[in-house]
Amino acid sequence: MTRRAIGAPTLRRLVVAALAFGALGCRFVQPMPELEGGIELGLRRGSAWQTIKVRPPYVIGPTASLELKKGIFSGMSATGELVRINVDKEGALGRGPGRVDVDFATGVDEFIIDGVWNSGRVHFRITSDSFRGSLQTVGGYCQYVLDELLHDGARHGISICSGLPEETRLEIPMPIQAWLTPSELAVVLLELLSDPPTTVLEGR
User: Fold this and answer.
1) Considering the domain boundaries, does residue 8 fall inside one?
2) How many other β-carbons are positioned within 10 Å of the β-carbon of residue 178?
3) Could you report the per-residue pLDDT of 65-86, keeping only the tens digit for each?
4) Domain count within the chain
5) 30 or 98: which leads in pLDDT
């Protein structure tokens, strides 16, 4: 293959473009605003951790990078698919990227999540002293039984994702509960729980 020589006019244009990029470069090296600060929800299984960061209006996690505006989560999944989930006090509807059609119900001391999350069945019952449920995950299917509320507010118990029970800890910092409505927080929790950390014994 014969290489073509770069003519003077073309070379000048390249130099001008490089200088312009250099002058604007500071815009690109600054950290993205949605990655600064924020508070993390954390899920630990065994010694493995997974987190999702909330800094309104941004939610950045292992399965998606989202923005929350007027009750709508929108953004991109980790696989490059569009996510758009409408949320109100009664449920969540949309794509995340699979089908999302979840109902929320509240009682005196309970919050129920029931329906379809990313095209898989999901059901959770959350009370002041119990957090139980199951959903389809990136790697298969997970069941959570977190019936101990620790002094720091974390939920503690076990989860089973690949046939092996693992000690599990779910951290939901109080400031996040002030930033988000219960329904919005439920969506963020489902994002976190749908891609749980895998332990050494489980593999992928």
Assistant:
1) no
2) 7
3) 999 999 999 999 988 999 999 9
4) 1
5) 98
Q: Is 106 domain-assigned?
A: yes
Q: Could you give the CA distance from residue 54 to residue 58 in angstroms, rounded to a whole number?
A: 6
Sign, CA dihedral 131-97-74-81, equals positive
Judged by average pLDDT, the poorest of 7-11, 21-25, 123-127, 181-185 is 21-25
User: How far from 44 is each of 62, 155, 173, 174, 198, CA to CA, in Å?
Assistant: 14, 10, 14, 18, 9
At 135, the amino acid letter reads: L
Whether 176 maps to a domain, the answer reads yes
What is the extent of the structural domain holding 176? 36-193
- C-alpha 195/C-alpha 186 separation (Å) is 15
In a domain, 4, yes or no: no
**Tokens representing 63?**
């399965």
Q: What is the pLDDT of residue 15?
A: 33
Q: Which residues contact 102 (CB under 8 A, 6 or more apart)?
A: 91, 92, 93, 113, 114, 115, 116, 117, 122, 186, 190
Interatomic CA distance for residues 82 and 113, integer angstroms? 23
Q: To the nearest whole percent, how much of the chain has pLDDT over 70?
A: 80
Give the mean pLDDT of 159-184.
Answer: 92
